[in-house]
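Hi support team,

I submitted a single chain yesterday and got back a structure, but I'm not sure I'm reading the token output correctly. Could someone confirm the output below corresponds to the sequence I sent? I've pasted both exactly as they appear in my results page.

Thanks,
R.
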Amino acid sequence: MKKPNFLFIMADQLAAPALAPYGDKNVISPAINALAEEGVVFENAYCNFPICGPSRASMHAGRLPFSIGMHDNASEFMASIPTFAHYLRDLNYRVELSGKMHFVGPDQYHGYHTRHTTEIYPANFAWTVDWSKGREFRPTNLTMAPVIESGSCIRTLQMDYDDEVAYNGTQAIYDLARQKTDQPWMLTVSFTHPHSPFVISDEFWDLYKHEDIPLPTVPPIAVEAMDHLSRNLHYCQGRHEFTVTDEHRRNAKHAYYGMISYIDRKIGALRDALTNCGMADDTVIIFAADHGEMMGERGMWYKQHFFEWAAHVPLIFHAPSRWSPSRVTENCSLIDIMPTLLDLANDKPFVEYVDSIDGKSLVNALHNDTSSLNDIAISEFAADGSTGPSRMVKKANLKYMDLEGEESLLFDLKTDPHELKNLIAEPDYAESAAELASICEADWSRKEIYETIYTNQRRRLKVHQATGGDQTYVNIVRLNDGQRYIRNDSAADTKARARLPYVEGAKPDKKS
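Hi R., thanks for writing in. Yes, this is the structure output for that exact sequence:
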């Protein structure tokens, strides 16, 4: 067969448990459902870092985040690290990007020939984490305000951005179809929805009956009963300063469903463009998200943890002309996308890597042969809410978490899908706990990684303090892109206040 084209569609902060192919029958997402019904669904795919920037960089490099210096949303993705875009260009692919990728630093392309839009978030060191404050957690820009402000609207800043992403992505398909060569292409279309704040236009809000929106399955957990990282996040996100009611939770989930339906319609339009151009049969569609969203489960919001709603992501490969629909139960992760793309583009196992990679090709699994999968996913964390590095290992049904060396958790998701019973001290699980701890500790030294991250934070904070955020490094497509969307120290939740009609920002109801 001819070399396939690739259409890689990314969502932002989309939890696999919120989608119909992964069990949620409330959400309205016919385009995503069709991809799953016609494609290969990886039921247990995980992000390698439950926050945007490091997750996306590691996915592009096929390597775990800490190994490439990705520690938080202001970590510089070094230009010297080869990505799947570089390798695909070497295989004569045209590689283009429309939308968010949260690359930080002077290189805003990382192998892509062109970017059709600007970034929605800062590309400099504005959001660097600061461990020098120790355990003195002050609420960050990301508080409970976006949850309390959730609801419907006429327009949001995020819709401004994703309408731009979708238009340019669809136009890129038509432009690629006009090529006078047989050069294969890869197009990444990356949306910012359904990232918080949880606000969507009336058109998509009204798809759902408010009274039918389910509340979180697991209620809030008392602070004294939380694990170490959850407790850190509780204070980092200012949950002790805001009162979040059931109506707030239902509003947030209602909007979250609406936001999913919004990007689902855009996914359908991208597929229509492929069909209209006669390229549908020659194009492999990959659908994934960079991480999940806790959506009120356990009283938690956003990501920044290894629980299922934060770390379990959708991953679907769609190419009915190449393989039959199926579902893969073995664990995998986003770093497996790179070797899978290169094997498909090369039509045989790709071996010309400059550096050893951590990802494993999923090509055999696409053909219903999972014997080569190791059934292991690893995720790392050192961003907002952390005071040290953490790691997760998932093997088969067991998930092990080493939380900053302060606490270890072990869950059996087969018997405990909501991760409520910590089995780390259970004699029957002692052997499994030791095995997963050994995998977790095999290729890192906590002390060395801590010192590396801490030193890197000091450097970035000094640069940002001295420059005030100039250079911004933002990818400029339109003349005023340096001022559009979220720049420098702008708070992420200002996206909610940049909506129509204007909504007064929620204020803390108590101070700690």
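A quick pointer for reading it: The longest helix spans residues 246-276. Let us know if anything else looks off.

Best,
Support desk
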